[in-house]
């Protein structure tokens, strides 16, 4: 049923086994974003009432998730290169389950303990997302990566969409610990499903290699007439000495093409998190929106993001990530300042201002989804030319690491622009940042291709 390559633990499944593994990974991605977003409706008020914390400390609590994800990159990067990705997924899921259980302890919890648990959740999320993309990239052929990326992005956006509503309802009617019971249950279901559909305990002492698949970094179906003699695989200890994970990651990530596309990942994350920070303040000041209506508009971004993921993945496979990435990036940079257009032309009392904001939020969600879906396949293509043996690992680490950096930078950058220049120029600044990175990256890739 499985054909396993011990060196990188490629799982070449047949029939429904491969799709079962995809379902398990989609549940894992959904769980990560659900756990991240389920506490947003009630945790600020809870911390203020029970711990007397001000806004700065509450902001630090929420930023700790991203900080844990960024810091753990240095831990996960060598581990994923030395240990099979399915093992890493199980370890990170177990760590996330234990961190969620901290909130279920039956005594008064100190704020530092909650902060540490939140940081550990961020670390677990980084491990699951990074190893999960490696696992799927090795599981499916190259020409399906766009659609697979679209499915994973849809799972992530669904968690962001459902998390706040379910978490707020559970807190309101069943108390503080109810959302965390659900979080722990999702982690447990994720672990059990992964153990059922991906038996990662099988071992193979030899590895048949195809002349087309050797060192490709992608899971490839092998033809019987193409199989040479079995190649012995070195022991894990000997293999770990040969890989030099830090050197591999540093050498590949510092390539100009890879670095520039990585900057696009960070710029997208900064722009998205910056918009979600500045938009509620603008809606409160302009339309006197309360948290419910603001949440509906933010949920509309996530809904549009999820609905657009599969079509974007199909277009990415059909047209190629090299073309789709700049198109979606320019589309995303164009959509951001449209949110501030009514204020820019001094018309803050438009009768249809709410409809305008809803339309621009949906447009931004679709553009953001298209760009996010195409970036991972593009990075895979670039890394393949530099480090083919570890293409999926390095691509996933660069994508998730720089995305976490962008999530950490975006909110304070947006807040500073709002404070000194107002909402309009904050949106123009975020759009200009994304537009500049896209232009520089596109021009560089065009010039490089001509050479």
From TrEMBL:
Record's bilayer topology term: Multi-pass membrane protein
A single cellular component GO annotation: membrane
CDD domains (UniProt xref): MFS_MdtG_SLC18_like (cd17325)
Family annotation (Gene3D superfamilies): MFS general substrate transporter like domains
InterPro entries cross-referenced by the UniProt entry: MFS, MFS_dom, MFS_trans_sf, MFS_Vesicular_Transporter
KW Transferase (keyword) present: no
Recorded superkingdom: Eukaryota
Keywords: Membrane, Transmembrane, Transmembrane helix, Transport
Subcellular location field: Membrane
Transmembrane region(s): 21-39, 59-80, 87-109, 115-139, 151-172, 178-198, 248-273, 293-315, 327-350, 356-379, 391-410, 416-443
Record-level Gene Ontology MF annotations: transmembrane transporter activity
Domain Major facilitator superfamily (MFS) profile: 21-447
Primary localisation category: membrane
Protein name: Major facilitator superfamily (MFS) profile domain-containing protein
Source lineage: Eukaryota, Discoba, Euglenozoa, Euglenida, Spirocuta
